[in-house]
From TrEMBL:
This is Uncharacterized protein. Residues 7-19 have a biased composition (Acidic residues). It comes from the Bacteria. Residues 1-22, 124-156 are annotated as: Disordered.
Length: 156
């Protein structure tokens, strides 16, 4: 079961309250652990989204190739039917089928490109998240001693 991220604060006062107590709802070690877990979850989910979109792009491209091969095969059948003087209605049906297949190829190609772009966007978001919050998480993980209790240091 996937862990769910906490919703964003509704107002500035909610954000200030979270800042004072830590994103996990508690200061000190508990808040730090919740922040570290949230950082990891967000990073993993962004990587998973990027991978899923790359898989979708690859799958759509595979379907594109298959439909393109089918259209070429139908064209071959149409040519064979013409050479055998088959009923023009049958030849027309093959021509229509081939046309429909080729018309959807543009949509499939656009979908594959969009999925690939979304994969790159998710990867960039993951890298940005790691760049923004990774050094803080790393510093906190390697910090000697205990994490300070943030409510104690708050200016209340």
């Amino acid at each position: 079961m996937a862990a769910e991220l906490e919703p964003l604060p509704d107002s500035d006062s909610d954000l200030e309250a979270e800042t004072e107590t830590g994103a996990g709802g508690g200061g000190g070690v508990v808040g730090f652990l919740m922040d570290a877990i949230t950082f990891t979850i967000v990073t993993v989910k962004l990587a998973a989204a990027s991978t899923a979109m790359l898989w979708l792009s690859h799958t759509v491209k595979g379907a594109y190739d298959y439909v393109e091969e089918c259209a070429a095969h139908v064209d071959g059948q149409m040519d064979l039917a013409e050479s055998l003087n088959v009923d023009p209605a049958v030849i027309g049906a093959h021509r229509d089928a081939s046309t429909v297949m080729r018309e959807i190829l543009d949509d499939a190609e656009a979908l594959a490109e969009e999925a690939q772009q979304m994969a790159a966007d998710f990867q960039a978001a993951k890298e940005g998240h790691e760049e923004d919050y990774g050094p803080v998480t790393e510093a906190m993980n390697n910090k000697p001693g205990q994490v300070a209790d943030s409510p104690y240091y708050a200016n209340n």
